[in-house]
Predict the structure.
Amino acid sequence: MFTYSLLAGLLFGLYFSLIGLGLNLVFGVMRIVNLAHGDFLMLGAFLAFWLFSLFAINPVPAVVIAFVGFAIAGVPIYYLLVPRLLRAKDPEMLSFILFFGLAQVIEAVTTIAFGTSERSIPGNQLGQAIATVESLFTGHAVEGGPVEIFGQTFPASWVASGIASGCAVLLVYVYLYQTRLGYLTRAVMDNREEAVAAGIDVHRVSAIAFGIGLGLAAVAGVFAPFMLGSITPAMGAEITITAFAVIVIGSLGNPLGTVLGGVIYGVGYMLMQSYFSSWANLLPYVLLIAILLVRPSGLLGRRVRRA
Amino acid sequence: MIRLSILAALLAATATVSAQAADAPAEIKLGTLYASSGRYASISLPVHNGLKLWIDQMNADGGAFLKAFNKKIPLKLIAYDDQSNTATAATLYNQLITQDKVDILISDCGSVLTSVAVPIARDHKMLLFDQTGTGATFFTPDNPYIALMSDPVSTIWPKPLADFLTHDGPGLGIKRVAMLYATNDFTGTQANAVRKFIKESTSGVELVFDEGVPTETSNYTVLLNNIRAANPDAVIHLGYASNDIAFLRNVQDSGIKFKFLFAIYPGLETELLEKNVGDKGLSYVFTYVPSSAISYETNFGMSLKDYSTAWHNKYADSKIEFGFNSVAGYTTGLVLEKTLATAESLDQLELRKAVFALSGNLKTLDGTFELDPNGAQIGEITPLGQFLPGDDDHQKLVTVWPHELANGKPVYPRP
């Protein structure tokens, strides 16, 4: 029971790392809290649902479509909202209000479009995708279904989501530490005013980071029907809260600290479900309070807060 | 002299009718809440739409007949959106009573959103027309201001399930039962009832896994693994629709095969569950057989077939599935219609008297309307059914318990 909970927690935690990654990137670069993050994730989930229902597109290609689509959409959204926000006296506080309003609008429009009922994509869709990849490597047909890891069986969708989350973290790392754009992004994260003084086009860098943040949220959304049971237009608020807890645990403003936060949350949640199931949903709030009391900068805060 | 007496009596009667007509309100205000978003939207909106359908029918016919005024009066629905939030719901229930001064107070669906209405209605001495809030704690001897309209009280729901397990179960090889439930009034009460029924039986059936989880739970993979470790012969899952969807999808995705699997909502909201879990996921699942799946003989209101047609005509493109909850909202309307037609006034205790007078006599598409002395619904039972593969690739819900209602035999273990 313990081993299973631990491994399940790692996979589940990786998924929550993916959920928190975009939120933390946006906060790190712009110092604004995107309270509509969960709603962008929900939009990504409905995009995947829509692509599957209407065109029978598997969630795996939907990941690419969602990322590219939302990353591109993020740029004009940035220019529409954020520069005005940053000119205000207290942009962090105002961002709460603005993005809260945006979240309400997104939820209402999605409700009109899709209704309030739960929607989902058949669970075997990701299993089939994994089986196809596996059969390419092994050379013989592989049946889609649960996947065995260290003698424990997990749904294929968990493994697919874990792989996607790992890839997303890796790509964000490469983007931040191996590209010129990432170098500029880290400069903005470190000190926005100095970056401006150094001649960096901070709005361009921030807009791209904002787009990537939304793209990551949408990718997490594609996996939501598999990891969160089903999707509804109202799911965004709860996800934003959990994502916020995850990034505070890791380190607010440090995207890669999100991985640590996600894994701690995932493992903690699964152990709680196993041993104190009635109290499991309290975990993000308990962790949030504990971290804020003991180490307000997050677990990785002191060492790498400034990327 | 006789002529004079008759004339006097006629004049008096005319004066009374005129006075009644003069006192009659221009409209009867029905106050209710619904959830257009949030966790309970998918069960609240069908209930609300069912109630609205009844109101529209009444108003198209000139309104509801009120015995108190001896005439038909149009119905005005005042409905607010609580967004599935109990704090918002509490504020809005108060607003309906104190600001809108509604004549009739109707709760939102489900036990969670009804729980806050119960003390508010009681404090304001308003009879709460409780649509589907079935938590047993709502109904107490010291509270005359509540009556459950459409669902049986939660302690009644699992009786056929528990009876099946303790009577037929041992013969089939069911000895070890696992129960996982969401910790809210609706399913928590049912879990208590199952526990009690099994404990009181001498069948040798025992609970080997008995855990509660928050209603917000959306992932059951680890819990399923823990249940499997307990090696049960039967698994009972008690949760709301979103819980059942996540649970049944996780069962499928995990590749775990339980010999007996029970969940509440496959029977209650079959269309919704079919869309999310798929036919394969529902195959051989045990569930309640609700009023939306049985054609009860009615003595008032539309039959199930007619109502289903009316619903689909009215809400063809509303993206809200027809099911048990849509029947519940309409049933509330039918009880209200009868109540208003027989109550001597709109006084809340007079309304209560009229509602209780219907007990045992009113038969709607939801079954027999019958209340216990505390206002809990005990007439509309929930037989145990099982989804079996039908001829047309779709699952067919077959009633397996009680024997007198059964139209098929249970398949155990699940293939």
Remarks:
- Chain B has two domains: 7-153+296-369, 159-293+382-401.
